[in-house]
Amino acid sequence: MELTAPAIGIYIRIIAILSLMLGLSDAARLLGVNLGATSPLTAMGMTGFVYLAIFALARLFAAVGLWIKASWGAVLLLGATGIELALYLAGSTDVAMSAVGFALRLVLLVSIIIIFVLRQRQRRAHAGD
């Protein structure tokens, strides 16, 4: 990604931490935290469980990629979050989230788009040199 400005680096690390926290929260839901004796598979259904597992893993890997400032981290987070929000907004019963979860995912999506815009501006500035 080569975003060398210190402020941009801090911004990317904050997004990585948010992605890590959201991924760990999803992983806790996969393990059945706060469900008591109910199995997560029966609570979410097989398809919902698989979706959540894929999105949780993608978000955790994206957090690592963002932390090391690799471009694949931003692309992975954009793809996973975009697909998850699209499924939710399309009315899929397999993707469930709270209002806070929706807002956090929306913030992540906008943040990643801002990173891409900043990267493009940096490329144009270096091309002009």
Q: Could you walk me through the main structural features you see in this protein, from its secondary elements to its overall organization?
A:
79% of the residues lie in helices and 0% in strands. Helix 1 packs antiparallel against helix 5 and helix 4 (71-89) packs antiparallel against helix 5. The chain starts with 5 loop residues before the first helix and ends with a helix. It has one domain (6-128). It is built from 5 helices and no strands. The protein has helices spanning 6-31, 40-44, 46-67, 71-89, 99-128. The protein is mostly helical.
Topology summary:
Blueprint: H1 6-31, H2 40-44, H3 46-67, H4 71-89, H5 99-128
* Ends distance: 19 Å
Largest sheet composition? none
Mean pLDDT: 88
Please, how many domains?
A: 1
Approximately how much helix is present in the residues?
Answer: over 70%
